[in-house]
Amino acid sequence: MKKGTKIVLWTGIPLVLLIWFAGPRLGLWGNDLKKNDGVAVVQAQTQGQGAGNQQGQRPGGQQGQGGQQGQRPGGQGQLPVTGTIARPSYLTNGIRSAGSLLANEEVDIVSKVSGKVTAVYFREGSKVRKGDLLVKIYDEDLQAQLRRSEIQEKMLSEKLERQRVLLSKDAVSREAFDQLQTDYNVILADINLLKVRIAETEVRAPFDGVIGFRYVSDGTYVTPQVKIAHLVDQSFLKLEFAISEKYVSEDLMGKRISFTTYGYPDEFFADVYAVDYRIDETTRTIGLRARFDNRAGKLVPGMFASLTLITDEKTNALQVPTESIVPEMNEKKLWVVRNGRADLIPVVTGARTASMIEVLSGLSAGDTVLTTGLMQLRPDMAVRVNITE
Asked: If exposure means fewest CB atoms within 10 Å of the residue's CB, which of 37, 99, 124, 249 is most exposed?
């Protein structure tokens, strides 16, 4: 094949392929042109209809905007948000720690003597008074010994009186009278001992409190190692906790404690009454105990407490929810509502709790602070506020 023919083939074949693939797109074929024109016409009609609809609806749209503006006082066009009223409240600041609530007094009820239980006089979970009879142990043998000793005591008492008369008349020796006096005293001691042993068969409450589950029944043979029940005095509770040794030089006695527990949203208060100034070498802390008046019966021993040893307290601190704070660069801001519109104001914050933060300046009591919808807010935007506590 000639050289010229090769050059024509090498350049012509790619050109033909290029025209074949690009022709329909460039409108070189009649059918395709008609198809494309049809598509173009449809698109033009669609655009024309859309433009016509938009132009036709524009006056209505303008009326709709005017309607929104006219309905704004009624609530339409306002961003729904949630807010809270800033009010003065009580705030504490100090040393934070954690502790446990202990009973004022608690004890396992056991019998001092061994024997069979003849009666149980308490109900589980009930309140008992000091000295109330809880359990009775078998004591018939001791009662029999007591009756015999009392009879002997009566006989010796009468004989002793006769001997005293004879002694005054020198009708009996002093030695015989003294021996009779000794026998009489021994009988009295035996009677007292038997009464003590009988009293030990009556298991009584050592203090006022609430008695728990019972672990014995009628007929149970008990010993001093057998637990009968558990008695707790929870009229007052002890809050036991520890703080760092660096506070050992502080005057801790009498300090006030604020604490919270699981199950109650309330804040409770206690007063430090004892300090263990022995430093724990493992934790490098000192132990403290505070007393809490629990006569209302809200709290129970064993509860966990998150507490603050109060070093500073305020009665009129302004606090807001932490989620309402908007951090910006080197300052913090709050969204507030004034005359039905949102306003972003700078504030200075102070102490922080688990859910609240103190506002030192920039906010006034009675201001409505927004807590939700903060990302959608813009300055001077109309809002509809749902107030929460």
From this structure: 249
Q: Is 118 exposed, middle or buried (0-12, 13-18, 19+ CB in 10 A)?
A: middle
Residue 42 lies in a domain: yes
Q: Which two tokens stand for residue 211?
A: 């008695």
Cβ-Cβ contacts under 8 Å for 135 (sequence gap 6 or more)? 109, 111, 117, 119, 120, 121, 122, 202, 203, 216, 222, 228
And the tokens for 219? 């007929």
Please count the other Cβ atoms lying within 10 Å of the Cβ belonging to residue 45: 11
Q: For 182-190, what is the mean pLDDT?
A: 95
Q: How far apart are CA 278 and CA 289, in angstroms?
A: 14
Pair 221, 122 in one domain: yes
CA distances 127 to 68, 140, 154, 232, Å, are 68, 30, 42, 9
pLDDT value, residue 351: 82
Name the domain boundary from 200, 227, 254: 227
CA-nearest of 101, 382, 52, 82 to 234 is 101
71 within some domain: no
Task: Please report, as a single letter, which amino acid is at residue 354.
Answer: A
Average of pLDDT values for 53-68? 40
146 shares its domain with 177 = yes
pLDDT at 41 over 70: no
Per-residue pLDDT band at 329 (split at 50, 70, 90):
confident
Residues 120 and 212 in one domain: yes
